[in-house]
Design goal:
The complex is a heterodimer. By secondary structure, chain A is an alpha/beta fold. Chain A is 37% helix and 18% strand. Chain A contains 15 helices and 15 strands. Chain A is globular, with a radius of gyration of 24 Å. The N terminus of chain B is likely disordered. The chains are: A alpha/beta, B mainly alpha. The interface between A and B is large, with 61 and 40 residues.
Chain lengths: 458, 62
């Protein structure tokens, strides 16, 4: 086993680390963590959390450790279908991840354990629900000690949620800049003054930020017994109450009316749904990426074939609505995420290798690119051959809709600018994509000028 | 070698510790009041709320 097989996102915690061998993901638990791991398993906490879908299950593996000197055990955790990051989540996704973290902490405290970290990156969406993926996040509770993960929780969850709720939902993107969460002094400065009248935000955010500044260069030895278990319970419940009260509803957006702004007839819409459904059933992809998925109507057609479908959209309101549908319908194989295709998530963190870029988390078996090509080719000026290269890098099967210049949606994009796209025609599109794909099928969408293609990467 | 680390692996932040201890009494008091409020209501015949742990089939994501 070489060091290179260790996953670079898990280097920080000395309790253990992730590594892969022959495509299987393992987690080595170090001897330093043996007591805490044994308590997690023997106390019944592990079983309770797994039963409540709050922790991913694992099995103890018979695999040789990657670093045998420090090793206690090797476990094989369940693999998550698609790793996503908090800057790709909608408001309710981040809120649910926060509430899941606090729920885990409450359950842990009842069995004399506590979370030693509260990183949003330790939460993933598994079968539609926010769940902890780091089995080594627990430690034996030490009576009298404050919560070591308090600062991290406030930076990773409370600050961005408050900013999204009280200032602007797009401020979730601060998480892309600040890998360890939004600095509390920055959040405190950006939040409107009225948040100082909210007890939770006043204490956990504004006063907390002030305390951080005041004691930043002082060494403080916390008094033993300074924080009773009752007070710690109060802290967690206070955070929970504060988070639950944070809400966001997109202003000026008519919920559920996303598709009313299209120039589609019902019959065109149904025809498109049918084609996506039929081609997904035919090609049986395991992983589908719906790029420009809006509220996920076509993602659901792909998902109905059994594929795990990630539904990306640039609009946080559409993603929010999509996620609410996932929850209401208890859907397990759809993951809505916020993504700007013209500037997709980059690789981030130490050595640019802690968080994977959008592309590194692929390729998908199938990509859906419906009603999106004109945004990329015309609004963003990407030449068609480059678009073909992009899609070829990210999938084997491509279901792509060509929207011609005569279409009113494209006309809208061209009203205020010069038409510098002479090759943006059906013929030009087919010629560009033939360089990278075999075009297996093309169907004119009923009652429209649009064409749906099924292509296979060369 | 078998040892238990004495310090957290992440810096919990001095200010973040101080503020927790500063509001500890208030937070503890809140929990105590909520707990006794439950028993007062119970005394007068109100049904106690089911504990979160009793509902292991689901989590609290709202």
């Amino acid at each position: 086993m070489s060091k290179a097989d260790q996953l670079s996102a898990s280097f920080r915690d000395p309790s253990g680390f992730l590594f892969t061998d022959k495509g299987i993901l393992y987690r080595q638990i170090n001897r330093a963590y043996s007591k805490d791991y044994t308590r997690l398993m023997d106390s019944g906490l592990y079983d309770r959390l797994v039963k409540a879908s709050l922790l991913i299950p694992h099995v103890e593996a018979d695999h040789a450790p990657a670093e045998s000197d420090a090793a206690f055990k090797v476990i094989q955790p369940e693999r998550v279908s698609f790793i996503s990051y908090p800057y790709e989540w909608s408001f309710s996704q981040l809120k649910d991840a926060a509430l899941a973290t606090l729920s885990i902490q409450k359950r842990a405290m009842k069995l004399d354990m506590s979370l030693k970290d509260a990183s949003a990156y330790n939460i993933q969406f598994v079968r539609g629900k926010a769940a902890l993926i780091d089995t080594l996040s627990f430690e034996i509770y030490k009576e009298g000690e404050p919560w070591v993960a308090y600062k991290q929780f406030c930076q990773h969850f409370l600050a961005p949620l408050a900013l999204m709720a009280y200032r602007d939902v797009r401020l979730s993107q601060l998480l892309r800049v600040y890998i360890d969460g939004v600095p509390l002094d920055l959040a405190s400065e950006l939040l409107p003054a009225k948040t100082k009248f909210n007890f939770g935000l006043l204490t956990h955010l504004h006063i907390h930020a002030g305390a951080q500044k005041r004691y930043s260069d002082k060494v403080v030895a916390p008094r033993k017994g300074g924080m009773s278990k009752l007070a710690l319970t109060g802290l967690i419940e206070s955070l929970e109450g504060t988070i639950k009260k944070l809400t966001w509803k997109p202003a000026g957006t008519e919920w559920g009316d996303y598709y009313e702004n299209t120039n589609y007839t019902d019959s065109a819409f149904e025809h498109k749904k049918q084609l996506v459904h039929d081609w997904s059933v035919e090609k049986k992809p395991a992983l589908v990426w719906d790029l420009g998925g809006n509220t996920g109507i076509f993602s659901r057609e792909a998902a109905s074939s059994g594929a795990f479908t990630v539904s990306f959209d640039i609009d946080p309101a559409a993603v929010e609505q999509n996620y609410r549908t996932v929850k209401t319908k208890k859907e397990q194989n759809i993951l809505p995420l916020v993504l700007d295709l013209t500037n997709p998530s980059p690789a981030l963190g130490w050595d640019n290798s802690e968080r994977d870029s959008f592309g590194a988390r692929g390729p998908a078996d199938m990509v859906l690119a419906l009603a999106v090509i004109h945004h990329l080719a015309i609004s963003n000026n990407v030449p068609l051959p480059q678009l073909a290269d992009f899609f070829a890098a990210h999938c084997k099967w491509l279901v792509i809709e060509f929207v011609p210049k005569s279409d009113s949606q494209v006309q809208k994009l061209l009203t205020s600018r010069e038409d510098i796209f002479p090759t943006y025609t059906r013929e030009g599109f087919e010629a560009a994509f033939s360089g990278r794909f075999y075009i297996h099928k093309n169907e004119v969408v009923r009652d429209s000028e649009r064409v749906l293609y099924l292509m296979e990467r060369k | 070698m078998h040892y238990t680390p004495l310090l957290p692996y992440l810096d919990p932040g001095s200010g973040s510790f101080i503020i927790q201890i500063a509001i500890a009494v208030l937070l503890g008091l809140g929990v105590a009041i909520r707990a006794s409020w439950g028993s007062i209501k119970k005394y007068f015949g109100a049904k106690p709320k089911p504990e979160e742990e009793d509902d292991d089939s689901d989590n609290v994501q709202s």
